[in-house]
Amino acid sequence: MAHLIKALIRTGVLLSLLWVTACSSQAPTSTPTPDLDPLRTDVAATVWAQVTQAILLTPSITPLPSSTATTPPTSTPTRSATPSASATATLSPGTPGAGTVNQAQWVSQSVADGTVFAPGKTFTMTWTLKNVGTSTWTARYMLRFFSGDAFGAPRENPIGQEVLPGGTVDITVQMAAPSRPGDYRSDWVMATDSRSNFKEEVFLKISVAAPATSTPIPSPTP
After folding, report:
1. What is the count of structural domains for the chain?
2. Residue 8: how many CB atoms within 10 A of its CB?
3. Distance (Å, rounded) from C-alpha 155 to C-alpha 79?
4. Do 49 and 109 fall into the same domain?
5. Which of 20, 162, 186, 198 sits at a 20 to 30 Å CA gap from 48?
6. Measured between alpha carbons, how far is 50 from 8 in angstroms, rounded to an integer?
């Protein structure tokens, strides 16, 4: 770049000299005007050679490559697993459900269904139930009347003992057959000490029949 500046300065000086010379040549004189074209050509050639050399000697500035912004790779969202619909357990009397905290299962009973009683006949009914849930039954858990005919028994009957999961308990209730003949059913359900009923029920079905009356045989007439 310094060589280029010097060449331009020299060019300016030479052009100034040529202009002064030309002006002086226009003054009236008897001296013949010299031909300056060869001199101008030499000067121009000299200046152009110096300018060209200065340009060649001037180091060219190599542009630095611009940094290309790299877009960070976007993470591909992982498809979440579609939760499968859980099966709903259908609970029926004597069938334990899945994942229930308070759950009872019928094991046996002392009076079979369909037993025939005389009207007003008293009897003792015992259900054996198993704790198939995850909670521990306290002594205040109870067997409660649910529907049908209570057969004269108390509506709430505490079990009176602690029953761990997997354990069984015998619940005994004093009952009496109805006074009228017919078919009857009594439904009961386990409940917590706060009277929250379980989903399973136990029941008893009996029949009441009037006792057969004896027909008197007439005595023979003498």
Report:
1. 2
2. 14
3. 56
4. no
5. 20
6. 9
Q: Which of 201, 204, 171 is nearest to 104 (CA)?
A: 201
Q: What is the pTM of this model?
A: 0.53
pLDDT in tens, 51-64: 556 555 555 555 55
Q: Establish if 122 belongs to a structural domain.
A: yes
Residue 98 lies in a domain: no
Task: Say if residue 139 is in the same domain as residue 49.
Answer: no
Strands 197-208 and 115-117: parallel
The tokens describing 30, both together, are 């008897």
Q: Which domain holds residue 52?
A: 1-21+40-57
Query: Per DSSP, which regions of 90-196 are E strands?
Result: 104-109, 115-117, 122-131, 142-148, 156-158, 168-176, 182-191
pLDDT tens digits, one per residue of 39-50? 555 655 665 666
